[in-house]
Every structure is written in C-alpha cells, then in structure tokens.
Design goal:
Blueprint (H helix, E strand, L loop, with lengths): L1 H29 L1 H8 L11 H17 L1 H5 L3 H26 L1 H26 L6 H20 L3 H19 L2 H11 L2
Helix pairs in contact: 1-3, 1-7, 1-8, 3-6, 5-6, 7-8
C-alpha cells in the first residue's frame, strides 16, 4: 500500500528532522556566547543565554507541520484554533510567573514550553484523526535529551560538565533519532 510507504517515510523524515534539529540547537547553545559576542559585541552578550532555548523553540515550530497533519487532513480547523488559544493562555500565564523571577530566560522558557505543548496536544489529536503512528514517547525522550543539554548550559558553571553533558546528549540523539536504514536507502537511490 503506497500510503503506508508514504506514512513510513514521513515518520522517518520527521524523526530525523527532530534529531538533527535538536543536535543543532545543542551546538548553537554550546557556542552561543561566542556567536553572540562575535556578531554583536558589547551590550548584547547577555542575550546569549536564551539562544539555546529559542533555537529549541524554532525546531519545534518546524515540527508543527507534522504534529497537526491529522487535524489539517480532517479539515477541523476549530481544533487548531482551540489548541492555539490554550497554548497562548498557558504562555501568558507562564510569562507572568517566570519573567519576574528569571527575566528574559523566563520568557524564553515560557515560549519553548508552549511550543512543545502545542506539538504534543496537536500530535495526540492528530493521531486519532489520521494515524501516522508517530511515537509520542520518542518525541518526549528526544525533547528531554535536548532540554537537558540546553538547561545544563543555563544552570551549570563548570565548562567541562557542560561539554560532557552536551556530547552525551548529542550521541544519545544520534542513536535514537537517526533511522540509519532509511538514510542508507536514500543514499543508495541517489547513486543508482
């Protein structure tokens, strides 16, 4: 069945997208201070602390295309509006709680958490309407691994510990995110 093959391909592409996106976010996060100071010397240096969180948010913003595919295919756009409303309300609530306590980092945490929440809600609803058999567990594990690396950079002062955690998270993401058989198939088809 060609639709099953397409579903399998979509699953693997998004698994790879999320894994590589999270790895790039970890790398951006790790080098964020150097990048910000190189591009914007001076008073913009403190903004480096939110680069990792915002890049994580951007990765999950791109994942929305997959997470809402079932809702879109069922043409139930009211559900999308409802999910948007819920996540905006949560974002505003988190901003009120976090910004007074941790400033710009609070805003970045709020934004990132809400975009992840939006994906999780969309994925749960979408799977009921048009199942791609996307593993919510894999999504959450990948998110947790990426989040650990990015948060460790925010809370730890030890560069060696941050380096070890970041490398461990990158290796973990490679193992669970990269569908090596799928990549081999793409490479083989490319050279035929």
């Amino acid at each position: 069945n060609s639709s099953e093959i397409d579903k399998s391909k979509i699953q693997k592409e998004y698994q790879l997208y999320l894994g590589t996106g999270l790895i790039l976010s970890i790398c951006l996060n790790y080098f964020s201070t150097d990048i910000v100071l190189l591009l914007f010397p001076g008073k913009y240096g403190p903004g480096a602390e939110v680069v990792g969180l915002l890049s994580l948010s951007a990765v999950f913003y791109g994942y929305i295309l997959l997470s809402q595919i079932g809702i879109t295919k069922s043409e139930n756009y009211r559900v999308l509006s409802f999910v948007e409303f819920v996540t905006i309300a949560v974002n505003i609530g988190l901003n009120f709680m976090l910004i007074p306590v941790i400033g710009i980092v609070g805003a970045a945490v709020s934004t990132t958490c809400c975009i992840i929440l939006k994906n999780v809600i969309n994925l749960i609803i979408s799977e009921k309407r048009f199942s791609l058999n996307i593993s919510l567990t894999r999504l959450l594990v990948q998110t947790l691994i990426g989040g650990i690396a990015i948060i460790s950079n925010l809370i730890l002062d030890n560069n060696l510990a941050i380096t070890i955690i970041s490398l461990f998270c990158i290796l973990s993401l490679l193992v669970i995110s990269v569908p090596f058989g799928f990549i081999k198939t793409i490479i083989n088809k490319s050279f035929k």
